[in-house]
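Work Package 3 (structural annotation) set out to generate three-dimensional models for the target panel prioritized at the project kickoff. During this period the team completed the workflow that converts sequence records into discrete structure tokens, so that structures can be stored uniformly alongside our sequence database. As a representative example, we reproduce one entry of 167 residues exactly as it appears in the project archive.
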Amino acid sequence: MRMMRTLVIACGLMVPAIAAAQPTTTPAQPATAVSDASLSLARELTTLMDLAENASAGVDVMLDAMEAQDPELAQFRPVLQRWMRKILTSEEASAAFARMYAETFTEAELRDIVTFLRTPAGRRFAAAQGQLTRRGGELGQRLAEENQAELVQMLEAEMQAPQPKQN
């Protein structure tokens, strides 16, 4: 039962983490209304970026990290992969990502991004995102492991520091 609860909690944390792993820029102010043209461009952007494939790479990175923390989760990896990929490749997810991009970028910015993604360099950039996500996850894990002693020291110092009085 403890394992099932751990799995459910981990899965609940995976979706936002994978979405957060997608390429980002400094966001524009979210629009209150999204034009049809912006939404159309955002849909094209998600297609050109192959977000479903890139999200799959994010799933693998997340599962690797989870298994490093709890090796028993390895036995559930195929189920977790199928579940996450089903969610992230759904029409609902595609529409939600398109809306998110349309709310984040202006129509002109979306047009510029789509124009770039249609170029050879843009296609190469989009195609590399899955590999970069995997490599970035590995890099982050390696850096965290190499600097773990510092984190332990910081946490110990925080636990020993006097706690502020609450009123």
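The CA atoms of residues 42 and 98 lie 5 Å apart.
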